[in-house]
């Protein structure tokens, strides 16, 4: 894990299979949150395109103080976001958005620039 300031790091580059974020370097998939981020390793939680983003994937974001979460669904929208995950966020009172990757990065960067405690799970391929 790499720590930066208490704000959410801006994503500075996005292309197929790669993205860069301030102070975090280049990754294929990224977890970003206030104060830092790290590679998003799907094998840690058993994440696959289907059933998609797991509750365990978003828990780390909440542990870092996020009050809004942006979930990237991939460039081709192949990554699913199951109701169990969104219901979990709703039950915690966490605002969330699930968007195509380019839209997700734009929304995340906008929220970070506004000083929101935003976290993101970003998938840079399909």
UniProtKB/TrEMBL annotation:
SUPFAM superfamilies: MTH938-like. CDD domains: Mth938. It comes from the Bacteria. Its main location: cytoplasm. It is found in: Cytoplasm. Keywords: Cytoplasm. Transmembrane segments: none annotated. GO terms for cellular component: cytoplasm. This is Mth938-like domain-containing protein.
């Amino acid at each position: 894990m790499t720590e930066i300031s208490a704000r959410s790091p801006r994503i500075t580059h996005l292309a197929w299979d790669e993205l860069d974020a301030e102070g975090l370097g280049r990754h294929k998939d990224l977890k970003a949150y206030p104060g830092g981020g790290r590679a998003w390793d799907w094998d840690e939680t058993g994440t696959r395109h289907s059933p998609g983003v797991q509750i365990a994937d978003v828990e780390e974001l909440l542990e870092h103080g996020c009050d809004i979460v942006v979930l990237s669904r991939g460039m081709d929208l192949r990554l699913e976001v199951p109701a169990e995950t969104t219901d979990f966020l709703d039950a915690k009172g966490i605002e969330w958005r699930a968007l195509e990757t380019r839209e997700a990065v734009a929304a995340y960067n906008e929220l970070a620039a506004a000083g929101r405690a935003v976290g993101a799970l970003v998938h840079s391929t399909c």
